[in-house]
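dumping this here before i forget
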Amino acid sequence: MELSNAANHLQPSAIRKMFERAREFDDSVNLSLGEPGFITPDNIIRVGADYLLRGRTKYTPNAGILPLREAIAAKLQKENGIRCNPATELIVTAGATQALLLCVLTLVSPGDEVIIPDPSWPDYYGQVVMANGVPVGAKVTAENGFKTTADIIERCITDKTKLIMINSPSNPTGAMLNRAEMADIADLVRRRKLFVISDEPYEKIVYDGHEHVSLASFPGIEEYVITMNSFSKAYAMTGWRVGYACSNERVIANMVKLHENMIGSVNEAFQWAAIEALEHGDEDVEKMRQAYDRNRRLIVDGLNAINGFACPNPQGAFYIFPKVTGLGSDSTAVADMILDKTHVVTSPGIAFGPGGQGHLRMSYANDYESIQEALQRLEKAFGLK
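structure:
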């Protein structure tokens, strides 16, 4: 008997494959995984641990505890310009990954086309395939700053298009859409009446005075936009698995229904920890952002001095996406070669879509000293320009 379409067509992550290959070397420096190099701040850990010790280990409402939804709603209004009813227009999920899956399963029927930035986070593609939808790559390039602008999106729209994915700041490129570019997408949504998932987990990790803008802050598109976010990146809470989605009541009610049939609810103690992050986490977030900025300047300048690398300066997130065709045209072969020669772990650009070929994704969320070590090894292997 045949396995499902999703099981037959999804491929293992090339990012994880490189991570596993790195185990061959005792002295590897990992610039591959998209994970903060910081431990979750102490105050957040203490709140989570306290609720566990108090026995708060039971199921919660499917949509999440109301105090967390109220805290998220207050944050969205204050920081993002998004108004929502915490009782009916928010759901707490097991990280942004589950929020994405719930969104896709709620909106996409078999055969529906979903426009996805190319390159982008591989799970966009994978979860659309799991829903038997059709991923359509909207190719972005270094020449346009890797931005998924309205004109690029519109060229991909057909009569089968159901959903658009946008991600600003972007994984893997660090690109950001400015207010005017986001307004153009809002106008496109009004005209075309298409659903949009705005994935915003890197919203607080921006540099050089750039402004994060949420699509849902523009009027007249409330029926179509789903805002997704996570506590993972900004608050260094990747392992806690707490995320959320905000949209109109019809979309959220159906996401809650699917959520009930998937995992039921998110760990209650960790939801209280997320409240602590929202209410008392700004100082730690800023300290981490400043550290990422220092790392960003180090790695961009360092790579641009090394033969074979051409590295644009990212505006947000904690990734760089250098062009490495000077070392070879196949990004997987280049990543393998770099690992073998230097024991530095990178992610091949092709893992993020066909548009990533000829590039590598490198995370600078590691500590400063590890990035220095990686640059020294790359310089020794390939020489300076």
